[in-house]
Amino acid sequence: MVDYLIFLAISTALFALFGLGLNLQWGFTGLINFGHIAFMTLGAYTTVLLSLKGVPLLISAVAGAIVAALLGLIIGFATLRLREDYLGIVTIGTGELIRLVVNNQDLPVGDTWVSGAFGVQSYSIPLSTEPNLFVRLLMIGLLTLLAAVTFFTLWQWIRTTQISRTTDLGKRTTSKQEFVSRLAVGIVLAVLATAIYISGVIGLYNYNPKAGLMLVLLLVLALVYWRLEILVRSPWGRILKAIREDEEIPKALGKNVFWYKLQSLILGGAIAGIAGAFFAWQLSAIYPDNFQPQITFDTWIMVILGGSGNNVGTILGAVIFFAYDALTREVLPRIVHLDEARLGAFRIMVIGLILMILMIWRPQGILGKKEELTLGK
């Protein structure tokens, strides 16, 4: 049970990190990216191939993020001056192009060249060797600190809405609804964080390399979330939101809209590249078929479900998606008697139905603000 919870925590945190990059591009800037998987692919393969050459894992992961960012730069220069739909077409084509090139290209694995279709195996992952007791206790201390910061951040996030409700009488009803939704989300996330914390402590004490990977991933996710929150609340982030709503307005104010869009695409790509490194480390062996377009559209579901333009919403969307995935894998076979292929299709149909209902009931997503989005006008 502990190992399964650690696996779910890694998967959820990994796609939450991946989704934060997409949310920056779409949710805050309005850039249509249907090929987000391309950035993950480059990040994963760059990290793995460099580590097999003896490059330290940290430097390999940073290099993977830089390569993914360079892809964003190339795509941006090619498409951002054109209509928005061209970006969507180019990105989905780029994602498939990179996957097919990797599948048909020989890759430098160690001292030999191996066909990409055979995949890449036997590469290093962070904290794969069992540390001594002192280091394990230090890691548990870091996890405890991270859990404490998480609980404090959730409390502050809920409390700010309560303060808004009691001080702004003109928006009392709307703020109350937001407070209730935030309180419910905060309780759910707190319960999940507690379960992850307990599993992590057990996994780190009776050392499991995946628990070490989970700790590193959670620290990176917390750091990226923290910096993104600062950025999107800054003047830079407000310009991105203005571009999302109507780019003619920031243009009239003298802002270089193209440059801001390019920055968003590059930064979102770099975040996806980092997620690619963790994706490779989680799998322990990567193949081109691991990077199907379906991953991009699953991430779109997470961003839309939680509320685009909201970083907490993206994390919540990832939690809901993987909770649904885990529950239906266990429960549905006992209710619906179908073969494995049909059961998989049925699960996709159900989440599609849930998404349709959500779009009718709350088109801005669970935590999205309708008044901020063009969709709500």
Automatic annotation (TrEMBL):
Pfam families attached to this UniProt entry? BPD_transp_2
What organism does the UniProt record list as the source? Nostoc punctiforme (strain ATCC 29133 / PCC 73102)
Q: Which InterPro entries match?
A: ABC_transp_permease, LivM-like
Major localisation? membrane
Q: How does it sit in the membrane?
A: Multi-pass membrane protein
Quote a single Gene Ontology cellular component term.
Answer: plasma membrane
Segments crossing the lipid bilayer: 6-24, 31-52, 58-79, 86-102, 133-158, 179-205, 211-228, 265-287, 299-324, 344-361
Q: What are the alphabetically sorted keywords of the record?
A: Cell membrane, Membrane, Transmembrane, Transmembrane helix
Q: Kindly list the places in or outside the cell where this protein is found, as annotated in its UniProt entry.
A: Cell membrane
Q: Name one GO molecular function term.
A: branched-chain amino acid transmembrane transporter activity
Stated name of the protein: Inner-membrane translocator
Name the coiled-coil region(s). Answer: none
Recorded hits in CDD domains, A to Z, give: TM_PBP1_LivM_like (cd06581)
